[in-house]
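Example 3.2
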Amino acid sequence: MNGIVIDIDPVFLRIGPFQLYWYSLAIIAAIAAAIAIVLHQARKKGIPSSEIYSIALWSVIAGILGARAFHVIDHFDYYLSNPSQILQFQGLAIWGGLVTGVVTGAVCAWLKHMPLGRLFDIVVPALLVAQIIGRFGCIVNGDAYGGVTDLPWGFIYTNPNALIPSHLLGVPTHPYPVYEILWNGASLLLLLNVKRYFKVDGMVFVSYVGLYSLGRL
């Protein structure tokens, strides 16, 4: 059987009832990297770090809650039958996080009378880097998977705790997270190289949304 075997327990650490997932570590790393990148970009644009920290705090909180809410809505039948699992945060939907995080950041920036277009453009590299890091957590989790494949780079999840559906356990599937990592990496390189040609604030962000949507499609 062709493929790359992934036999990693999604749970990185267990202490009594407490469980720390690899995915959680990836999300923490993604958030830290994103904030660091935004701070670096903001300094170049003369935006105070204190303003960025304030906006980032509310955007991150809203993004996580939104990502979880979208995931629950997307799997409503399951959570209707298992309501106790709604608050476990074992599944996040990227679109929910993007929408709620960006909207919250926009509202905070508007209240502070900051230029929204310029701020959105600054955030783009941070978003792409964060999405790339986050998808490494998905590789371990097995929750983001593609169709069955016989290609040599297919992922074969064998750990019984993997979040891939049971009927696909041990079956090679397209490594969807890797495809998105490559797409987001290419988008990042492209936007970093062409952003100097944009004369209107906000065009980098609009281009990012278009590229990411195309990749997901």
